[in-house]
């Protein structure tokens, strides 16, 4: 059920560098014949829904389809998109019309829209990329694909996971999925996007085991008002975005950390440490923990400054509070960051640690146990002191 030729996947370089072909598979990337597992359907949907609601509450970040967007002027085939003509730029539409087929399933990306200050409700606005995607499949194919699990890799290096949109599935005829996927921009502005990759997992069987290769679409954007941006500016925006978490409900104390550490092939930025007291855990019953609970969250920016693909997992981190035992990452609360980093890639997110009972309420010391990585080598554990002085 797998293709006989290895697919060549392209990953983005740093600011204003061309996409680079990757001929070898990095540690942590799915190889041919390797299987990855999804959670059972109903549980997966429930977890994703609760995570989306939680992330909105804590970080103030939009996870729903924007409402009341102005209509985009769609240019004729071959025409350049219209430039913005107001302070809040009009949507820019880019015809794509690319499709790929495997295992009797065809994924077609019809068009891309660059949205300026899209309204995600509750006073939350964000620049965003919208992709219009259609999936068709042969009637006798039992495999499925999940476009809303895709991600964007921008020419600036930023990687963005899919936000909840108005994507719909129709199985009455066993053949169609259609809708729009929204990717809120955190670091990159619409007019800084010159090109992007849309990466979506390959076909999965009824057990949610992926058996095919990734669908990868390389899309030239060529914004009519394109402005290059350097890495320093992107990192400055990451620090600004991290401050939103310090104002979330339930925050008892926040510390500006600004820890920058080179960990082999990647550079880790720990921007803020946030202490939550007496908050509700949406998975308390599932985890069998008593509420209310306390959390420590670390806001991160992780960048691959090298020219090779590398694997780095923030999810394997542990946090030592006041010299105690290492606390594992709360995966249900934390923002998932794919461990594969292409050359020049930069990702931002937050990791949450559930504070167990018995730890004194006053934070005295924090130490982050993470990993030092190099292409093709096993990660090495390293302990970083997180400064939390007032």
List the SSEs and their pairings.
Elements: E1 9-11, E2 20-22, H1 41-59, E3 92-102, E4 105-119, E5 125-137, E6 151-154, E7 159-161, E8 168-170, E9 176-184, E10 195-200, E11 215-220, H2 231-242, E12 251-263, E13 266-279, H3 284-287, E14 293-304, E15 310-311, E16 318-321, E17 326-328, E18 340-341, E19 346-354, E20 366-372, E21 380-386
Antiparallel strand pairs: 1-2, 3-4, 4-5, 5-9, 6-7, 6-10, 8-9, 10-11, 12-13, 13-14, 14-19, 15-18, 16-17, 16-20, 20-21
Major β-sheet strand ordering? 3-4-5-9-8
Radius of gyration: 21 Å
Structural class: mainly beta
Tell me the β content. Answer: 35-45%
DSSP helix count? Answer: 3
Low-confidence stretches: 1-63, 68-87
Count structural domains: 2
Quick one: biggest sheet? 5 strands, antiparallel
| Helix percent band | under 10%
| Overall number of strands | 21
| CATH hierarchy, class of the largest domain | Mainly Beta
Alpha-carbon distance between the termini? 58 Å
